[in-house]
Amino acid sequence: MTNSTNSKATTYWDYIKVEELLALQNGLATDEDELSNDEVLFITVHQVFELWFKLMLRELRAARDLFMSPNVAEQELSGAAAIMHRVSTLLRRCTDHFLVMETLPTREYLGFRDKLMPASGFQSAQLREVEIILGLEEKDRIGYGLDLSYLDALRAADGSPSPALKRVERALDDTPTLKFALEEWLCRTPIDGMAPDDPKAEQRLNDFLSDYLAAHSLSVDRTLECALLLAGKDHDRKKLTERYAVEKDSVRKFFQPGEDEGGQRTRRVRAAILFIETYRELPLLAWPREVLDALVEVEQLFVIFRQRHARMVERVIGRRTGTGGSAGVDYLDNTALKYRIFRDLWAVRTLQIPADLAPELRDAGFYGFVSA
Ligand code: HEM
């Protein structure tokens, strides 16, 4: 390698900082040779994760910045989808990495576990930063089972703020989140050919939703009819009918969000997601739909990452209390179950209907669609 700005030839070791990197796996010892191979593996695997988290953060911030611009050009959307695909690939690699961690036998881990106490992955500032930039809300965080918030856990033993805490506090100040930025962009989606700043936009939105609700009702009736063919007993038929009635009702409620859920803004966001998914063949909606699907994939992989971590933990330490003091596997399973950020993107999947039942578009030409 040669460096164009000076005559000195660049070396691999200078550029990649190999020596510096290889000198960082000694944990609390002064010399890595004092540690077992198991412990060096434990440290190294965590460090590799932190590097992947670092890259994820850069990508997620770039995606957030992209959606915050008042006009997101068509070609930029392919860039946003590419960002999400990279984040998904990183998350897949992280999930695979637990395979390496699992080569650590329980007995060998217990040989050095006590010296970590009370350190824990719970103190991984970068994972918190990922959650924060994505848009995990404080009210949705799960208690740790102790009187200790995730921010308290980032304080040094004497209570002073650590570099990790400062990092997370900076992330909290670095607004908006990707979720918020995405919603701002979704709010601007023209529905049935009408942009939100048009004086008639509200009426057009209402018309789209009322047509959609009617089509959805038809779709549910059609499915219920098939379901009833299988149910022999009256009791089961009654149960199924009630269940499908709840489905119908939940769609109506979904489009009447209360003020605590964001009121009209949320209604428009939800309608935009539904609109994009329903008419995704239209040239102007193809990339938006790719982006939404890529985001669902990121969140799905995040959930799988959490589940995989919990299974690895169960294999290595069973169901004992975590070094950080949580209930261990139960706590981790709970985060996998409950932590969701892009809830509306998921919810719309429950409401979608087959293409043949979709309401007719009022202005297909607006989206670059010319019928033959
Ligand atoms: C033998 C290996 C591991 C064990 C036994 C283990 C165990 C645990 C346990 C029990 C918790 C719950 C908090 C506590 O009470 O300590 C936890 C949290 C966590 N661990 Fe691990 N872990 C291991 C490896 C890893 C690795 C390689 C990573 C990668 C960075 C990681 C990342 C995390 C994160 C980010 C949390 C916080 C999860 C949350 O609060 O949502 N862990 N770990």
Distance between the termini: 56 Å
The CATH class assignment is Mainly Alpha
Please estimate the helix content: 55-70%
CATH architecture: Up-down Bundle
Give the overall shape, derived from the CA principal axes: globular
> What is the residue-averaged pLDDT?
94
Secondary structure: number of strands: 0
Order of helices and strands: HHHHHHHHHHHHHH
What name does the CATH topology carry?
Methane Monooxygenase Hydroxylase, Chain G, domain 1
Write down the Rg. 25 Å
Q: What structural class do helix, strand and pairing data support?
A: mainly alpha
Major β-sheet, in short? none
Q: Please report which band the strand proportion falls in: under 5%, 5-15%, 15-25%, 25-35%, 35-45% or over 45%.
A: under 5%
How many domains is the backbone divided into? 1
